[in-house]
Description:
Blueprint: H1 2-31, H2 33-37, E1 57-60, E2 66-80, H3 88-95, H4 103-110, E3 118-124, H5 126-134, E4 140-149, H6 157-160, E5 163-166, E6 169-172, H7 175-179, H8 181-184, H9 195-200, H10 203-207, H11 211-214, E7 216-220, H12 224-241, E8 245-251, E9 258-264, H13 284-287, H14 297-306, E10 315-318, E11 321-324, E12 327-330, E13 338-341, H15 342-348, H16 351-361, H17 363-372, H18 399-406, H19 415-426, E14 437-442, E15 447-449, H20 461-478, E16 492-501, E17 508-521, E18 528-535, H21 543-546, H22 548-561
Helix pairs in contact: 12-22, 14-16, 14-20, 15-20, 16-18
Amino acid sequence: xxxxxxxxxxxxxxxxxxxxxxxxxxxxxxxxxxxxxxxxxxxxxxxxxxxxxxxxxxxxxxxxxxxxxxxxxxxxxxxxxxxxxxxxxxxxxxxxxxxxxxxxxxxxxxxxxxxxxxxxxxxxxxxxxxxxxxxxxxxxxxxxxxxxxxxxxxxxxxxxxxxxxxxxxxxxxxxxxxxxxxxxxxxxxxxxxxxxxxxxxxxxxxxxxxxxxxxxxxxxxxxxxxxxxxxxxxxxxxxxxxxxxxxxxxxxxxxxxxxxxxxxxxxxxxxxxxxxxxxxxxxxxxxxxxxxxxxxxxxxxxxxxxxxxxxxxxxxxxxxxxxxxxxxxxxxxxxxxxxxxxxxxxxxxxxxxxxxxxxxxxxxxxxxxxxxxxxxxxxxxxxxxxxxxxxxxxxxxxxxxxxxxxxxxxxxxxxxxxxxxxxxxxxxxxxxxxxxxxxxxxxxxxxxxxxxxxxxxxxxxxxxxxxxxxxxxxxxxxxxxxxxxxxxxxxxxxxxxxxxxxxxxxxxxxxxxxxxxxxxxxxxxxxxxxxxxxxxxxxxxxxxxxxxxxxxxxxxxxxxxxxxxxxx
Length: 568
């Protein structure tokens, strides 16, 4: 009996030890497998070398395939020890084609007798590194190095951001690289530690380290094909109309997934230092704040419908203008249309009709609905630097401010906040959270999918259906005279044209406009919401002429790319 007990006890300890070793081997070989794969380059390194390391970012195609968006690229750097160099010219002849240093600057470095370390070339190919290493030049060493690489160049540049120095700190500076910096960062790791010592050492610390929970790779909601389609249209807008900037968002209005987000002008992520103006790094889609104009009218009319204040058939007498607080508001053409209904207000984009709907709703309820649309808060998008909406005019007691706000002037919103509010019209009335990361694959081998839920319901389902029907009629009958209607697909859309505020904030430019456009489809069960804007386009006054065809091009691309079935 005693013998059996001892055998069982010994067996238990053997199995426990084996389990620990197997678990540790998994940590070393799988979790840190990349680290040890670099042992092949050991002849170029020293044990104390801490190579740059960072998590990866992936685009996701419609079929679920992952495409590299941000990765690490490996190469070699040349380092000299001036105290060991006797013949500077011989070394120069060996490395001159690899370094950006001038001959004189290089010789100055080699003459630093008490200096033991100078980096003189980076990102050297393996072929060239092998050739230099074979020369066995005294005082010359070849080290492995890694750097951030963006395989798609400028694609989704403002969403991805980049890694750069700020003082001595090398980390994410813009976009997702900055927002998820703590997830993408890696603690400094010595590459060449004895393998078996690594297996048996610090078992507890390695198995239960916080880095397994914190460090990971990002899988995005961005589809590179959709991103490319959006950017092509924005570049065409920018080129044709010589706009200051153009931007756009393509998202799922039901859950906030962003398939594409872009701003033009853009930049090459792999050569961002060549940008002539650091302002190009700013992402106005998230950070910019604009008075949006007539794309706000559907929000006003939807709120009035939801409260029972108006319906699509409610009429009023349009005189072409209204006066409040000694200021007069006009329709875009300064013409009155007599007795008309709310559908005509949207079809003809009439300012007086939006004001009428706001008045029927009442100022307090109007303000509360707009706050429910989320314009009083940030959207929570997972990008840095989100702008703050300017809505102080909703807290005044002046009728003119509420009248202006009803058709998108006097309050200023970020494009992403506008797209979020407009999504409530499409999705049954819910306020979603726009986001770019679908899941994080953590270093420990487990994943965490993002889950934001539907959010607050701000409109009734019936209101969403009714405003969608009205916006479909805008496309079918009014937008460019009904010439862009797609026979077998219901598309809901609205344009917006707003005067830009003067640089000193006092009044508006008479000849500078923000053009905006939003639409969603299939209208009654939407998969996509597209939002476009262009700042100060030249040659056209109205957004219907600058943005309708880019929107329709994107719509037709998405219908074909996703093979969406006809819905009518």
